[in-house]
Amino acid sequence: MVSSLSFGLAIPTVGGLDPLLLWGGVLVVLGLVVAFTIESQTREIDPEVEAEMADKASALGRLRSGVGARAERQLRNVGVAQAVRIKLEVVGANMRPAEFFGSVGFVTVVAVVAAFTSRGPTLALAALVLVPLIAMGVLNRKVKKQRSNFAEQLPEMLQLLAGSLRAGMSLTQALAAVGHESPSPAREEIRKVMTENRLGRGFVVSMREVAERMESNDFEWVVSAVEIHEDIGGNLADVLDRVAHTIRARNRVQGQVKALSAEGRMSGHVMTLLPPGVFAIMATANPGYAAELTDNSAGHKVLGVAVIMLFLGGVWLRKMAKFKF
Question: CA 271, 274, 277: angle at the middle one, nearest 5?
Fold first, then answer.
């Protein structure tokens, strides 16, 4: 059984299924493959083990690295590529920005072709916009989660560091203990600092990069304390204890504010999801009524304006219910 498409292309159907369902299944499989690839690139490996693995890389791995390096040089001065590189480092993905853009671009092209062959240029344009936005949204969500976990782990990490210093360890030994005992992602960030220090880089420079990468003002205080300790000395353990106490107090206030603003944030989510939810129910219950918006150019314009207004309203509600400290 064959189903003819709008521009003359014909694809076979399986059991009478609509071509859109077939293309949707293909897209789901491709999306799962890309997601699994990105997840499999995220790992926690000791630097020494990672060096051994790099020495034993296969010819295919070396070819992949060479192609990625060439593409990386082309994107070196692009601001978006640098921002993506930092985000990939935060989530611990062993992936270059060029590889990330290539994976997203491949899925986008497949989605656009599938949408165009099944439903025409309108859906293809939507796929061209939505697929990259969804990919960046997933990456940003992972980055936000990693930074939030780092902020939550910071007081315990400072307490462990201060305790190690009081036990008579040097700063290098104390940071090594923190890198061994702390949970992820604090463990990976401290290990990066230790690895860079073995290569001759100072603790202050490496730790300041961690603060910038994690967007942690609290860790900036720690960097300042270490810098002062290296310049003029002093009791670094007491300073770290005070910083940890201050961070705990701020986190407690943030928790209270989040609890008080939970109702407003939930109202924003409901108001954002309600219009598309009602439209989906309407399209299911009365397809002919919804077809007035989906089957003509005027309806497409109305839907476009509605989506833009819904997006702007959701952003406005999110800003109203979000507080900065």
Answer: 160
Could you tell me which of 248, 186, 240 has the C-alpha nearest to residue 213?
Answer: 186
Say if residue 181 is exposed, middle or buried (CB neighbours under 10 Å; 0-12, 13-18, 19+). middle
Within 10 angstroms of residue 285's Cβ, the number of other Cβ atoms is 9
In tens, the pLDDT along 35-78 reads: 555 444 444 444 444 444 444 444 444 444 454 445 455 445 45
Q: What is the pLDDT of residues 139-181, one digit of tens each?
A: 999 999 999 899 889 999 999 999 999 988 888 899 899 888 8
3-class state of residue 241 by DSSP: helix
Pair of tokens at residue 35 = 């997601």
What is the identity of the amino acid at 198?
Answer: R
Is-above-0.85 flag for pTM? no
Query: What is the number of helices (H) and of strands (E) in the chain?
Result: 14, 2
Instruction: Write down the residue that tokens 């040089």 correspond to.
Output: 73
Backbone angles phi, psi at 169, to 5 degrees: -75, 155
What are the tens digits of pLDDT across the range 6-25? 333 344 444 444 555 555 55
C-alpha span between 216 and 304 (Å, rounded) = 38
Neighbours of 238 (CB within 10 A): 13
How many Å apart are CA 147 and CA 213, to the nearest integer? 9
Start-to-end CA span in the chain (Å): 62
Our CA angle for 254, 257, 259, nearest 5°, is 110
